[in-house]
Amino acid sequence: MAEQILIIEDEPSIADNITYALSTEGFGAHWCNTAAAGLEHLRENETSLVVLDVGLPDASGFDVAREIRSFSEVPIIFLTARAEEIDRVVGLELGADDYVVKPFSPRELVARIRAVLRRSLKREQESVEAEHSQFTINEQSYLITYQGEKLDLTRYEFRLLRILVKSPGRVYSREHLMQLAWEEPDMSLERTVDTHIKTIRHKLKKITPQTDPIITHRGIGYSLKEDE
Ligand code: CA
After folding, report:
1. 10 Cα to the center of ligand 1, angstroms
2. Does 10 have pLDDT greater than 50?
3. CA 15 to CA 8: how far, in whole Å?
């Protein structure tokens, strides 16, 4: 399937040019003209890369990038119009992979997109490690596979399961899991850990109905069954 590129840009003529250049080069393209529509699309659709305009009508591209990073490691290329924007983009605190200054040639942008995708594929391959014979973790795409099948996990489910998979056999208390997985751990909400473990188990059970690789330690917490 073609790589899907999401374009978040409010100027139709620019979006049209990019879309056209992408489709002639074999990419899929989807255009959103507001930050809100772009984020919504990204949350619901497999996307290889985002082309993000800094000046959007409903939000700054910087805020959009920050929001994207809270749930996805998808590569981002900024479109900037002004020198002061470039300074901020180059700061790279925002996790952008590249930027292109307006006006630009769509061909140049497509070349940059190819380069960023190549780099990110390489990164992705390097970060795939087998932690456990039945699980693999891909940090770049927030993906964990179980018995070779992709698990569809929420952000906290991913973080919790990653902790367990990285140290099979190690028992973690609820409190410790909460501290490791949540940005703002709230100890009054330790039950939240149980709720997430429950939904993770449910997802694992869909793949192996007979076995449960997560062990409950009553009154303490959880561990992952060690490799046999
Ligand atoms: Ca704009």
Report:
1. 5
2. yes
3. 8
User: How does strand 221-224 pair with strand 172-173?
Assistant: antiparallel
Sheet containing strand 129-130, strands side by side: 129-130, 135-138, 143-146, 149-150
Contact 94, 87 (CB under 8 A): no
Residue 130 confidence (pLDDT): 46
From the CA of 56, how far away is ligand 1's center (Å)? 5
Phi–psi pair at 4, nearest 5 degrees: -100, 125
* Cα(75)–Cα(135) distance, integer angstroms: 25
Counting residues of the chain whose pLDDT is more than 90, the rounded percentage is 55
What is the 63 CA–ligand 1 centroid distance (Å)?
14
Is this model's pTM higher than 0.70 or not?
no
d(CA 11, CA 25): 22
Question: What residues contact 84, with CB distance under 8 A and at least 6 apart?
Answer: none
Least reliable range by pLDDT among 90-94, 104-108, 116-120, 195-199: 90-94
- Gap from CA of 8 to ligand 1 centroid (Å): 9
pLDDT digits (tens, 9 = 90+) for 186-208: 766 778 999 999 999 999 999 99
Mean pLDDT of all residues in 89-105: 74
- Ligand 1 center–CA 211 separation, angstroms: 52
Residue pair 3/117 in contact (Cβ under 8 Å)? The answer is yes
Residue 56 near residue 8, CB atoms below 8 Å: yes
Ligand 1 centroid vs 118 CA: distance in angstroms?
27
* pLDDT on residue 89: 64
